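Example 9 (inverse folding). The structure is encoded as follows.
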């Protein structure tokens, strides 16, 4: 009876001291608001991320006795000078490769069907009930229909008014949000700091420092990994002679933020294309070597050096958070899944430390 009373008192103290109800209700409100407004949040989230990423650069320029507004304008000019030509070049190359892919898809399907026929025949010899011819015909037909539907879907999305609106919102709203976030970042931080509860201010500041360290390290590091891997795969596959190597490398690098998915997807697609395009073993082995080297570089140098363990999440939880974010919020969910999971992880660890110092844990 005495033990039960102690536990109840400890729970009440923990509940009251940490303002658990208020913070939990605020968390639920923010989650509900994000879910309701998910269709319009993408340009604002992108603007927020850009402002967060380039705040250190603006701060360094500001230290040269330049006002924050002019420092922000200078940062934007630097970004535009570098980003616009690079974006136009990448867009031209990728769109050209995608056009080649759409036109060459039937040829690749036919070549793949011819080259897999001996394998299917051998499989039929071991399993007589297996109809190799029918399977091959169905496979070719389904893949062909998939490419046709996919091509029409992309064209429809481009022509669709909502898609055009979304593109224009990204182009127009994101830079405006990024500019104001970058210019007023320190002001936002100062106002938020002034609103912190006086009793818990030091603890909350420490938590936010941990969050900032994790997010800044992960976002900048992961972007660097994606760019380096995408460039490597695109150039290496192009040198090997893969006709669509640049497109495959670009896609593999783009989705490298998902553990193992980027490299595995790129490898599977590249092998299918190589098997269809080449008639010799040398080129096929060369494609395999490209991805083996890429995986070695990513696992032993790029990710440990540029990203490290800043997020503090197991790869399984990273994949789970990405899948959950994609299901709940679509592309926006994929963007914010890992950072949100990292923030939740830091908050849980802070909560566990507080719990381990409480009377509930110590049972005093």
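The amino acid assigned to each position is listed next.
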């Amino acid at each position: 009876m005495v033990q039960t009373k102690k536990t109840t008192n400890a729970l009440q103290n923990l509940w009251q001291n940490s303002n658990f109800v208020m913070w939990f209700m605020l968390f639920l409100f923010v989650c509900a608001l994000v879910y309701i407004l998910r269709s319009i949040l993408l340009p604002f989230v992108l603007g927020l991320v850009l402002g967060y990423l380039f705040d250190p650069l603006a701060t360094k320029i500001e230290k040269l006795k330049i006002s924050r507004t002019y420092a922000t304008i200078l940062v934007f000019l630097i970004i535009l000078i570098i980003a616009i030509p690079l974006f136009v070049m990448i867009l031209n190359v990728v769109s050209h490769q995608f056009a080649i892919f759409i036109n060459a898809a039937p040829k690749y399907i036919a070549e793949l069907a011819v080259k897999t026929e001996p394998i299917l025949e051998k499989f039929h010899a071991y399993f007589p009930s297996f109809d190799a011819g029918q399977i091959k015909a169905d496979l070719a037909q389904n893949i062909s229909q998939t490419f046709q539907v996919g091509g029409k879907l992309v064209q429809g999305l481009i022509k669709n008014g909502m898609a055009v609106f979304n593109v224009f919102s990204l182009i127009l709203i994101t830079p405006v949000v990024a500019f104001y976030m970058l210019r007023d970042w320190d002001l936002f931080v100062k106002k938020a700091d002034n609103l912190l509860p006086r009793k818990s201010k030091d603890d909350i500041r420490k938590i936010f420092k941990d969050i900032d360290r994790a997010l800044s390290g992960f976002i900048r590091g992961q972007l660097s990994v994606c760019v380096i891997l995408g460039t490597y795969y695109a150039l290496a596959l192009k040198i090997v002679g893969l006709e669509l190597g640049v497109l495959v490398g670009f896609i593999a690098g783009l989705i490298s933020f998902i553990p193992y998915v980027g490299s595995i997807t790129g490898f599977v697609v590249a092998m299918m294309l190589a098997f269809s395009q080449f008639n010799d073993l040398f080129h096929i082995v060369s494609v395999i070597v490209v991805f083996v080297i890429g995986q070695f570089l990513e696992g032993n140098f790029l990710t440990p050096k540029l990203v490290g363990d800043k997020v503090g999440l197991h790869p399984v939880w990273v994949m789970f958070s990405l899948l959950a974010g994609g299901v709940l919020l679509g592309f926006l969910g994929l963007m914010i899944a890992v950072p949100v999971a990292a923030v939740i992880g830091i908050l849980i660890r802070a909560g566990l430390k507080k719990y381990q110092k409480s009377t509930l844990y110590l049972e005093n």
